[in-house]
Amino acid sequence: MSSEIKSDELAKIKYPVVVKPADSYSSKGLSICKNEDELRKAIPYALSFSDSGRFIVEKCVTSDYGFGCRYIANNGEIVLSALCDRYTVDEFDGKAHISSAAIFPSKLTDTYIRDINPNVISMFQSIGLSNGTFFMQALVDQDDNQIYFHEMGLRLSGGLIYSMLEASCGYNDVQMMIRYALGGPMATDVEMKKIDPYMHGHIVGSLTIPLNTGQISTIEGVDNVRSNPNVTSVVQYYSEGDTITPDVIGTLSQHFCRVKMMTASFEEYSKMINYVQNTIDVRDKDGNSMIYRKFDVTRLNHG
């Protein structure tokens, strides 16, 4: 929509809805609206983050559970490479609707491969997509358990996913893209045989540690986490002395770090999440913890 919303458009809206800029990122300018008054307030907020002066109003999927799928195209052959479940820091009614925990493979892997994947492959083959890597992201509505896709990227995704693919499956799609850009093949036969959405029996994923506002005084436990054999990488965004300002709450800049892990079972992965959260400690000058919220592993419900 443009910078204004018409009365006939307002009449068609069924709440709750999400209002967001048409051209922003990292959850900036996003609001969840339960009535018209909240909607009217959300529009100028969304527009303040939009260079094009446009905003989007769409169905609000009342779930903290997201879904993601990744593909690799090699000389016209399109292969499903990975499926993950993604969880937000806060549940639906919270403020921080940003990534908290991700886990591969998804608990919906069997269903997706059987019911959706063939259609997705046909869709991308129909437009002549030959080489590259791409992803789609979705929410899973807790009311009807349906997958609602909301974003697609014809590119490498963020979150350093390639490192998890390399650790669990033995291939690296960033290396594939670099090779292809330099004139070589997108993927070798050996690499294509290593692609497995079930991650060769491994459980891999990432956990982010969100912070409250304030100035960081002390940081402890990061080195211990980094040295754990089940941890494949730790990316730290803030250091002692840095300040977390109110405007970053609810955006990816709220995260203190991103920890990537790989285990042999879901139970072990759940234990690793708790280990990381109980080991990393970030405090302000008054000795108060700056951790915004710890992730509750019972939300994973992987069965």
List keywords for this structure.
26% helix; D-amino Acid Aminotransferase, Chain A, domain 1; Dna Ligase, domain 1; alpha+beta; 9 helices; 8-stranded antiparallel sheet
Explain what you see:
This protein has 303 residues and is α+β, with helices and mostly antiparallel strands. It folds into 3 domains: 8-59, ATP-grasp fold, A domain (Dna Ligase, domain 1, 2-Layer Sandwich), CATH 3.30.1490.20; 65-201, D-amino Acid Aminotransferase, Chain A, domain 1; 203-296, ATP-grasp fold, B domain (D-amino Acid Aminotransferase, Chain A, domain 1). 26% of the residues lie in helices and 30% in strands. It is built from 9 helices and 15 strands. It has helices at 7-12, 36-47, 109-115, 117-126, 161-169, 173-181, 189-194, 222-226, 266-279; strands at residues 17-21, 31-33, 55-59, 65-74, 77-88, 99-104, 132-140, 147-153, 203-210, 214-215, 218-220, 231-236, 243-244, 255-263, 281-283. It has an 8-stranded antiparallel β-sheet with strand order 8-7-4-5-6-9-14-12, sandwiched between helices. Strand 4 and strand 5 form a beta hairpin. The chain is globular. The protein starts with 6 loop residues before the first helix and ends in a 20-residue tail after the last strand. 32% of the residues are buried. The model has no long low-confidence stretch (mean pLDDT 91).
In short:
This protein is 26% helix and 30% strand.
Count the domains: 3
Which overall shape is indicated by the principal axes computed on the Cα atoms? globular
Output the helix-strand order.
Answer: HEEHEEEEHHEEHHHEEEHEEEHE
- Tally the beta strands: 15
CATH topology-level name of the largest domain: D-amino Acid Aminotransferase, Chain A, domain 1
Calculate the terminal CA-CA distance, rounded to whole Å: 41 Å
CATH superfamily of the largest domain, by name, is ATP-grasp fold, B domain
| Class of secondary structure makeup | alpha+beta
Question: Order of strands in the sheet with the most strands?
Answer: 8-7-4-5-6-9-14-12
Q: Uncertain runs with pLDDT below 50, 5 residues or more?
A: none
Q: Under the CATH scheme, which class of the largest domain?
A: Alpha Beta
